[in-house]
Amino acid sequence: MGIAAALVIALGGWWSSSILPDSYSAATMGYVDLGGGPGDIATHGHGSLAAVSVADLVADPNRSPDVTVDLTARRARLTVGAGREIDGYTLNGTSPGPEIRAVVGDMVQVTLHNEDVSRGVTLHWHGVDVPNAEDGVAGITQDAIGIGDTFTYRFIADAPGTYWYHSHQMSDEQVVRGLLGALVIEPAAAQPSRGADVTALVHHYGGVATVNGAEAELHVDAAPSESVRLRVINTDNVTLFAWVPEAAFTVVAVDGTDLNGATPVSGRKVRIAAGGRADLEVTRPADGSSLRVHLGGAHGVILGPGDPEPTPVPAEEVDLLAYGVAAPAPFDVDEPDRSFDYVIGRRWGFLDGRPGVWWTINGGMYPHVPMFTVEEGDVVVMNIVNHSGAVHPMHLHGHHALVLSRNGVAATGSPWWIDSLDVENGQEYEIAFLADNPGIWMDHCHNLPHAHAGLVTHLMYTGVTTPYVIGGDMRNEPE
Ligand SMILES: [Cu+2]
Fold this sequence. Notes:
Blueprint: H1 3-18, E1 23-24, E2 31-33, E3 52-53, E4 67-80, E5 84-91, E6 100-103, E7 107-114, E8 124-126, E9 150-156, E10 161-166, H2 171-174, E11 180-186, E12 197-205, E13 208-211, E14 218-220, E15 227-234, E16 240-243, E17 249-254, E18 257-258, E19 269-272, E20 277-283, E21 291-295, E22 299-303, E23 338-351, E24 354-361, E25 370-374, E26 379-386, E27 392-396, E28 401-406, E29 409-410, E30 417-418, E31 420-423, E32 428-434, E33 440-445, H3 448-452, E34 456-461, E35 464-465, E36 470-471
Parallel strand pairs: 2-25, 3-35, 4-7, 6-11, 12-15, 14-22, 23-26, 25-34
Antiparallel strand pairs: 1-36, 4-5, 7-9, 8-10, 10-11, 12-13, 15-20, 16-19, 16-21, 17-18, 17-20, 21-22, 23-24, 26-32, 27-31, 27-33, 28-29, 28-30, 28-32, 33-34
Copper (II) ion binds next to loops.
């Protein structure tokens, strides 16, 4: 056999091994990675005699809701920019959908109805560590909701902070086209008022930058010396930088968790990863001038009247690794039960039969990727390494992780809890989390085209199975 023929055969084998079946269980994809902990590789995704279905991992079914929301998803022509229109989606007739507000401890119940979205819809509660059955991932925690059908999500709003919701069926297409909204969980006790509490949800529609759906500055009627808590939500696929000219501002929370001992900064920008949030405390100057808060290059928020002059983006970032005051971790990060590597690369190969240069995880291409496998109660350390040539906003569902180090430099600031972490090319982040929320959880890049191109794997608890499949009759396609 000639070299050329051998090459064709080898390439054919490589190609055919990349083809995904019409339907498959996410629980059995890839290979088991036990991270140095105990476990039985043979039961991969097939559970055990005592298997628990993701569908049974719900919030207390006997508790009545404190917040009840009905949302209807529809196809729509969205007006963007000066009279331009794009094909998109609305929730209750708008995009973003209505902001959902709850108080910590509330039982939130959201019924989602699909009026006419042919490929089906779901909602994922980004940053809220909901029970697994409520996570909204088509093909893993539920089937996509077909036309005319409804699905009810129920979860306890257990941590005050800034979150958002978005579809996790064909998310690469549905999120960018508008199936999303803000979710704010307020602290329990009426805290001493520090001024207005304002949400600024940033999203690009058809390439047009918007704040809360409008292609314009968001004006906040703040008095001189008044402080505003600005909840910035980055719903786009790329990093958002926020900055305030000269004036000091404080980064009071990141990804739904207040920072400890945060102090005012000036002349710096704040990085908000795709999917991430930052709560900024900004104060209108005492002299009565208005203040412009930049959210990316296009629009932002103006405290006070008028249209203050834009200012260039600062070169320096607020470094959250050393910002604020340290505090002990709630679990022993020095003695993890499991340690995983999540090494992101890029090389030539086949993804579902398509040749190209695709992302890799620990050297393998989707679906030949690790299934990070844990037991409930484990302390888990994950080392995320990126040498793929691009930045990746990494998002683990169902858990918040504590940043331990970056490029070998230990964190010295406030505990920095993340659910969406920008890992730049050449960077290495060590994070830790407590495995306290059983289920099968996506652990993926939130630059959604990257996820669609295979930058996806899962965290699975032993003994948990899913009755849902990727593909299948409902054509579930979470990315
Ligand atoms: Cu990415």
